[in-house]
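Comment thread on ticket #2218

A.B. wrote:
> Attaching the input chain for the structure job we discussed in standup.
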Amino acid sequence: SSEILKIAHNINYDFSVLNTTYKNHNITINIKNFNFDTLIAANLLGYRNIGLKELVKDLFNIDLEPITNIIGKGKSQISIGEKPVNEIAKYAINDAYFTYKLKQKFNNELSNNNLNKLFDELEIKLIPILIQMQSDGMPINLNLLNELQNEFLNKINTIENNTKSLIHEEINLNSPQQLSKILFEKLNLSTENIKKTKLGYSTGAESITELINGLTYKFKESESFNLSFEDNTKIQFLNYIQEYREISKLLSTYVMTLPKLLNPKTNRIHTKFNQAGTTTGRLSSSEPNLQNIPKRTHYGKLVRSSFAVQEENNEFISADYSQIELRVLAHFSEDPNLINAFIKGEDIHNFTAATVYECDLDKVNNEMRRIAKILNFGVLYGLSPFGISRQTNLSFEEGKKFTKLYYQRFPKINDYKENIKEKIHSKGYVETLFGRKRYIDEIKSNNARIRDHGERMAINMPIQGTAAEIIKIAMINLNNSNEYNNIKAKMLLQIHDELIFECDKNKSKHLSNTLSKIMPNVVKLNVPLTINIQKGLNLGEMS
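C.D. wrote:
> Ran it. Output below, let me know if you need it in another format.
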């Protein structure tokens, strides 16, 4: 009966499997009166292991039979539908019974932790929206992906030849050992601030950036402002490594993989959204992950361009919250300088630069703005003066000086950070504006470095988590809006602070107006929320 309230453990997965199965027979299914998901509840309550069988083991000390006992594993695995009903009945009954037992336990815990509203009004209401987005899928341009595959493979080949010419020897750019030997022995690059591993000095992305920054800083400090031929060669080689890695990753993760994930019936890519995949409450995306394609790099934009509308009368509309995390920081910290800047609609990084450097806004140059931007985001991610110096090419002393100046100009931000540190040490958790809690065990460590890491996570979580909740509320409010539903747009993708829609070109202006009415007004903060709207025929031209 549709009047019976329904519960499940990960309804998104169950519904998606059912939906796919029934769609093959042209049957549409709809689950009514669903009101509890034990996986989402476990995640909200801070349980580390949130799989059904792990929770039953941890909480009731009962080992539930694994599905592989029934259907096998690997190449010998069969469909559960091939087994007799009496063989799978016990397995299904146990899963259902313990899901109900978990619901009873979690119901009380949600109440005791004041999480009912967040659970009922936000997370549960979001589930059908995510299921619909997964079902609608993203349209893709296969021809462009095939072209990109050839282009990227040729580029990789060119980079391999160029690096060989540059250092006059063969090198496998995928070998950390070989790379370490070339960088720190043949090219004699500085190992200062470079992590040591069992195989030698690290050649990870962080190390390559550190090495480039070190050489660039040397260039800035030199009187002649000219790098030697030798230093130019080093920078060129390091840039080749970065370019090679970016292209290789995009090639394997997207260009060669997306065509295999294309659904032949819908001609679209259907990612999976996970509500319980992060500790901050952000959504994550998998199979494929469509949230991590670079937006600002040339090659990333090429890959994003492969996500393109297929219907002639349609286009994409994207709406993203402008600097939402810094706005949330302004709300939490109540810093008057930061609040006033947002109220006046200032470019926040220019404003920060002018404030820190004590100059007029029109005197701010690109370098000052760049440092201000790193300082602003450094606050969000708990960067130390050392971290600031590494990202800005400033010396440690300069990084320390700028950090001190920043907090002198925005004293309430420092107060916010100190209050968060105090709270995490006394309570063991921090929480978002809407009450999501995160317990941070690292804070209890005897190791100072691990404790510092715990403090940085504590500073970031309420900000990033609140921003994630704001966009979730926007998705729900849009879904509940008759004005939005009448446009018949499809909400296809959420990329952290951004929502991407597909709609008829004739209705895109109406959609933009509706988004501008609903999204900035989902919550009242001390500063206004604003959105940027873009439209295009593919995601690349909207980057």
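A.B. wrote:
> Thanks. Noting for the ticket: The first strand starts at residue 6 and ends at 8.
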